[in-house]
Design goal:
By secondary structure, the protein is an alpha+beta fold. The protein folds into two domains: 155 residues, Beta-Lactamase, CATH 3.30.450; 158 residues, 2-Layer Sandwich (Heat Shock Protein 90). Helix content is 51%, strand content 24%. It has eight helices and 14 strands. The strands form three sheets. Strands 8, 9, 10, 11, 12, 13 and 14 form a seven-stranded mixed sheet that branches. It has a five-stranded antiparallel sheet with strand order 4-3-7-6-5. α3 packs antiparallel against α4, α4 packs parallel to α8 and α5 packs parallel to α6. The longest helix has 74 residues. The radius of gyration is 44 Å and the shape is elongated. The relative contact order is 0.08.
Length: 420
């Protein structure tokens, strides 16, 4: 799937580039040709007005013969065609290269036959009216060949066509690399989604299987001679596990949904942590782990107290659960400067537990990921707790970091912005 999608994106990218390349080239050539024509028109107009004062009125017609003789005597070769028309627009004189024998503004095509071979060439033409007082006595037309202009435009087009295969190849290579990078997150997302579905199905299927087996036992032991109370307790635990999984999935979906509006309020950090310490103290005593809580600073934060309570309850209870008897869990606080000049409170949860392997540090916030599957399952975990923690902290515009050394313990640090 990834290869096919990458190939399709690359081909689309190349076709889009070629289309834009030729479209841009066509626009550039059109603008270039237009600018050349404007420059030619300005030169022709200037030449016409320079020759206009030399026009004489001979035998009832305008003439430039004397001007042409003087130019010939100076050995000035006329590169442009200079024509004189009478007032009926009939060509009466022409000097320089052969031109178009009619009055014309803009482009004109001249066809000539030489040695039974017909050829045509383009001209750019401008004319001005010859006036004798208030009366019009004829026209002065100046023309120049556009052969060089057409050759330049043709060369540009040929160059574009010659470069097209090489540019398309370069774009294909770049497009393949770009498409690969674009496809990778999609493929990873699809992989995570597939893994999520499989893991969720497995997690839900396990308690369902237990319930089905327990119900079968009840049916087999319908006489009342079996230990119905034990079976019912098994069913109760399995259904509770299914309920907890469903609640966790719903909570995670809410935290990751941009549409979900998390209720926010301003409250003191002490209001959050003192009840939390009291609750976790009982868990640490039962586990034989020392819970050391530093004094909570007198700071205010904006957030959802219930959601943050779940965050720190999860982190502290995890630290206790993954610390062996006789170890300790420490909760401490510090403040640092924030990016906008405000304060950021850092809440550190340190433990002396089993630690996290280096290759698992980047995965522990993924859904259903467990560092130690057997231990996590024994404690009733689904591998969703840290995913919910990370999503909740991010919804509060905060950050969560983890440091760990295998066998010596871990530190989770949550950073939240303070308010005045």
């Amino acid at each position: 799937m990834r290869v096919d999608l990458r190939r399709k994106l690359t081909i689309d990218f190349v076709f889009l580039f070629v289309a834009l390349y030729f479209l841009g080239g066509a626009v550039a050539i059109f603008l270039f040709a237009t600018q050349l024509d404007v420059s030619l028109d300005e030169e022709l107009q200037e030449l016409a007005y320079e020759a206009l004062p030399a026009v004489e009125y001979i035998d009832g017609k305008p003439s430039l013969r004397d001007w042409a003789h003087r130019a010939s005597a100076r050995h000035d070769k006329l590169l442009s065609t200079v024509q004189v028309f009478d007032r009926t627009q009939k060509l009466s004189e022409e000097f320089g290269p052969s031109g178009y024998p009619k009055l014309c503004l803009g482009n004109a095509v001249v066809k000539m036959t030489d040695n039974n071979k017909s050829q045509s060439f383009g001209l750019r033409s401008r004319y001005v009216e010859i006036m004798d007082g208030p009366n019009s006595i004829g026209y002065l037309q100046v023309q120049v060949s556009v052969k060089q202009r057409d050759a330049a435009l043709r060369q540009i087009i040929l160059t574009m066509l010659a470069l097209t295969p090489f540019l398309a190849l370069a774009v294909a290579v770049c497009g393949s690399w770009f498409a690969g990078n674009a496809v990778r997150p999609v493929e990873e997302t699809m992989s995570l989604l597939r893994q999520f579905v499989m893991d969720a199905a497995h997690e839900i299927n396990t308690p369902i299987t237990v319930i089905e087996a327990s119900v079968q036992t009840l049916e087999d032991d319908i006489n009342g001679e079996g230990a119905h109370s034990d079976v019912l307790r098994i069913i109760e635990r399995a259904t509770s596990r299914m309920k907890a999984l469903g609640q966790s999935l719903v909570l995670l979906a809410k935290m990751e949904s941009p549409e979900y509006r998390l209720p926010i309020e301003k409250f003191a950090l002490k209001e959050l942590f003192y009840p939390l310490f009291a609750e976790c103290k009982q868990l640490s005593l039962a586990k034989g782990v020392a819970l050391i809580a530093a004094p909570v600073p007198d700071l205010m934060i904006n957030g959802n107290k219930d959601a943050l309570d779940r965050v720190f309850l999860n982190l502290i209870s995890n630290a206790i659960n993954y610390t062996d008897k006789g170890g300790k869990v420490t909760v401490s606080f510090s403040t640092v400067s924030g990016g906008n000049g405000g304060k950021v409170v850092c809440i550190m949860i340190d433990d002396t537990g089993v630690g996290i392997p280096a290759d698992s540090l980047g995965k522990i916030f993924e859904r259903f990921y467990r560092v130690d599957s057997s231990r996590a399952r024994h404690m009733g975990g689904f591998g969703l707790g840290l995913s919910i923690v990370k999503s909740t902290v991010e919804r509060h515009q905060g950050e969560i970091e983890v440091e760990s050394n295998l066998g010596t313990g871990s530190r989770f640090t949550v950073k939240l912005a303070c308010v005045g």
